[in-house]
Design a protein that fits this description.
Elements (H helix, E strand, L loop, with lengths): L2 H11 L6 H14 L10 H12 L7 H12 L6 H21 L14 E6 L10 E4 L2 E5 L17 E2 H13 L5 H22 L6 E5 L2 E7 L14 E3 L11 E2 L6 E4 L10 H7 L3 E4 L19 H9 L4 H8 L5 E4 L1 E3 L7 H16 L3 E2 L12 E2 L1 H12 L2 H6 L4 H6 L2 H5 L2 E5 L13 E5 L8 E9 L2 E5 L4 H4 L2 H4 L4 E2 L1 H6 L4 E5 L39 H4 L1 H13 L10 H10 L15 H4 L3 E9 L4 H13 L3 E7 L5 E8 L4 E4 L8 H4 L7 E7 L1
Parallel strand pairs: 3-6, 13-14
Antiparallel strand pairs: 1-2, 1-12, 3-4, 5-6, 7-8, 7-9, 10-11, 15-20, 16-17, 16-20, 17-18, 18-19, 21-25, 22-23, 22-25, 23-24
Helix pairs in contact: 1-3, 2-5, 3-4, 6-7, 7-8, 7-9, 7-10, 11-12
Length: 686
Amino acid sequence: MSKKERTKDSYSEDGKSINAMYITATFHILREYNTDVTLEDMTQSEINKLADGMLGGSTVYSEDTYRKFLTDEYFPQYISDARVDGAVDRVFEYIEQYMDRVHPKTSGCSTISGGSCQYSIKGIHGYNSDPLNISNLQVRLMSSSFCGGTDGRALDEDLVPFENYVLGVTYGEIGQAFNTETEKVHMIAARSFALARPTVMGNSSGVKYVTSGGQTVLQLRSCVADQVYCNTELGCSKDVAAGNQYGIVYSGANTHANTYKEPLSNYPNSTLKSSWQETLGMVGLDKDGKVVEMGYAVGNGNKDDWVWKRWAESGMDYVQIILRAYPEVTEIKKMNCSSTSEVTDSAFLQVAARIWKQIANDGYQYTSGSVAIPPSDKKINCSAFVNWVLYEYGFKDEFGSNTYDTVSFVSTDWTTKMGWQEVSVAASEDVTSKLRAGDILVRDAGGGANGHMNIIASVDDGKILAYDAGSESNWNTSNAKAGKPIDVTNFAKSDNRAGKIIRVSNVGGSSCQSAESGEALSWKQYCPAAWCNVPLGNSGATIGGYGCFITSIAIQIARSGATTTLSEFNPGTFVRKLNEYGSFDGSGSFIGAANISKIVPTFSEKYHGVSLTGSAQNKINIIKGYLDQGLYPIMRVKTTNGQHWVAVVGVTNNDVIMADPGSEKTNAFATYSLGECSTLNVYQIG
């Protein structure tokens, strides 16, 4: 974490809100006007001075206050009086230009285990090339003569979703040695490099775009000839010594002679996944909108992770680092990305493949009886296999204490329970067109023993492959021992049992929704908010005293972008209109859920009083499920000494990100008791 971000957190703990970008812009412009000033001059005391200057004795920063401070006090110490006004204007121009160069609003947010982006790019910088317009891009790992292999030969490995590939390249190339800003730079550079690589290479040595199974595949060499990809779920290994940079890298920490890296899960404090989430789909473009092949290597001038690390430690963020290291990059643009609920959940399937391979290689036997999770006696069946995969994937509270058979999988409402999407399946229905990789397909006649289920591994031109533990003959094969799925097309096409498709939401990372959050995230119920004294009906209560619940709903409405019947929408105008419909009882409690749609026609309550139980991770998983469906939850975070509600805007590995009407805090579990973060109300668009 940089000094300015630590300062921001420190001030936030004291109830003060500062803008770290003001500090960054000030030092950047100061160095333009006074070359004697260096990044080393940005000491903690100087940062605190600027932070205090933007507050001016208040608890919330103000542009007017900061302009006056820079003009009257700060810049005159370093710049001649005649140039001060221009320098102050340049600070705020810099901030505006900075924001224009990054396009977070062009994309929906993608969840941490993948997501698919639409890469729409005008061409490759420096080349007379055709535009790129690719969706759901996959990567095929290739051998290389440069690294002791054979050019043009594909490795015997599964295709890798491109965004997962970017994470794996960053893990393979820089591992745990760098700060978050350097990780973000590396990810954007790696993504841009990979997209441009076939054109730069002239489609030689097997490096090119090809079409396979109706999708675009990018072929790249799995070594330093192109990029060093390490499977984050399985780790990676080499035939040469681990320290020999010229060896080909294979998935699996122990599949070849020497382990190169263990699975990323062995490093629970790693920030790679959160850095990846923040930069998902981002590429470096030139002034013509063409992607730049952002090469990087140790000793390559400013295009070097160690240089970026030093710059980050001095206070620069990833955007500033890129613009300095790559002068040809004039814009960092985020591609249009969809959530993993719409695409293959690669991480979930990697867990399924790992357990499938373990069953095949460790002598597991089929049993129709119950199986403890995880299994202790090498007995397995189709439903136990699915339970085990879900358990290992991260839903340990739900599937460690309960074992669901096929009857239970069909009868349980997984949308209400876990926030997962469900698709009904009729008896004898051909569901091949409905299935996606990562789906759980379960069909049951109602008697339990007659039920069957599996995890869909791939869907390709009507052929369905799955991990299916319904019979020992399914896994007693050389293909299964290699972790490969089996053909279950007939089960998907013509089975005479009804059931459902369960679309599991992913685990372990941040999740967000594309929305214009800006001002709404800062809405507070308390004074000096303009609406703090607006009454809640005729109760005598006000928004300032008792309006956390309705303010949280207002925040989510604003974030959703839904059209309202009000000329101006904020918590005050919202409550005034709700009052016209008698939406609050005599104590000020909200009783008007049905009235919301009278003001916001497309916004309504979908689930009421969803219980959050178990560990922090279990609560995160449930919340993530709703976020991944594009829903808008609010959460009760306090049940004793009065209630309190907050708007949920995302999750991380270990916390829930909130917009809190009652404080400046953003991390729910760090602010409130885990046990009291107990209930959700969930809202929808449409």
